[in-house]
Specification:
A hairpin with a 4-residue loop joins strand 1 and strand 2. This protein is mostly helical. The protein folds into two domains: 102 residues, DNA polymerase, domain 1 (Orthogonal Bundle); 177 residues, hpI Integrase, Chain A. Helix 2 packs across helix 4. The protein contains 13 helices and three strands.
Length: 296
């Protein structure tokens, strides 16, 4: 099985153009599944049935893995078995019928408008670093970019006149995303005032740079967001993806078309975007319970 996993990872990298993060996650998930099959003394790839997969996912759940991670494991295994079928290593793929129980699906973490406004106001834009942080947070909320997309943005990816940017997402697919006047204004200030000071003579096209003139790391972004969430007094766990979730949820709550939100998020399948409709429905139910005379 290890040899087949290596073949699949090569297929994902070369044919699918998957990102390094996806490759690392899928490889880790598939190795975990392979270890599980060895413990169950299952040596033939074609001998795996839906029951084995359900049991495996159950062990992940019991082990405390999040619904998102369990979903990713399932996606990795399904993709692997589709590849095995296409390449002739198995005669039938019986794992396509396995799906997660709805109770396992965790709705995305979001901030409401008041919480988001408090968070965006916390960076001190009178300092070079604070202005950079304010620009990053504003851009995350304005566009719903993924972490990797934000950190690899270049100055040339921004179209100041039109008010949009070119983001390179999963599978190296490029999409155009509107930015909005508020974010464009703070970005313009950052590029003109703060970025040259942070660069300290270094030359790079990367949009967001650290105090040494290099690109920011994922860890630095996480640390920055946690710091401002604490300063804002937010009780929720706030991470970079919280901005993406809030971006989508607030658009849909404001009446945006689901298909338009899908395009802006860069989702290949609209079913991925539909999870945000569940969030808005939950909010509506909460409002009904709170304000209707017979709601509670």
């Amino acid at each position: 099985m290890d040899e087949r996993i290596d073949e699949f990872m090569n297929f994902m990298a070369v044919e699918k153009g998957s990102s390094l993060n996806t490759l690392e996650a899928y490889s880790r998930d598939l190795r975990r599944f392979a270890d599980y099959l060895k413990e169950e003394e299952i040596t033939a790839l074609g001998a795996v049935d839906p029951g084995h997969l359900v049991d495996f996912l159950g062990t992940l759940k019991k082990g405390g893995l999040s619904a998102t991670s369990i979903n990713r494991n399932l996606a990795a295994i399904r993709g692997f078995y589709r590849y095995l079928l296409r390449s002739g290593h198995i005669a039938e793929n019986v794992l396509t019928k396995v799906s997660l129980a709805k109770s396992w699906v965790r709705l995305p973490d979001t901030l409401n408008l008041r919480e988001m406004e408090k968070l965006l106001q916390k960076p001190d834009d009178a300092t070079p670093q604070g202005l950079r942080d304010r620009a990053m947070l504003e851009l995350l909320y304005a566009t719903g970019l993924r972490v990797s997309e934000l950190l690899t943005l270049t100055v040339n990816d921004l179209n100041w006149q039109v008010g949009c940017l070119a983001a390179t997402g999963k599978g190296r697919k490029e999409r155009i995303v509107p930015v909005g006047k508020a974010a464009i204004a703070i970005l313009r200030r950052y590029v003109d005032e703060s970025r040259p000071l942070l660069l300290k003579g270094e030359k790079t096209n990367i949009l967001f740079v650290n105090r040494r003139g290099g690109g920011l790391t994922r860890q630095a972004l996480w640390k920055t967001i946690r710091k401002y969430a604490a300063l804002a007094g937010l009780q929720k766990k706030v991470h970079p993806h919280t901005f993406r979730h809030s971006f989508a949820t607030h658009l849909l709550e404001g009446g945006a078309d689901l298909r338009a939100v899908q395009v802006m998020l860069g989702h290949a399948d609209i079913s991925t975007t539909q999870v945000y409709t569940h969030v808005t429905r939950e909010r509506l139910k909460e409002i009904h319970r709170k304000y209707h005379p017979r709601g509670s």
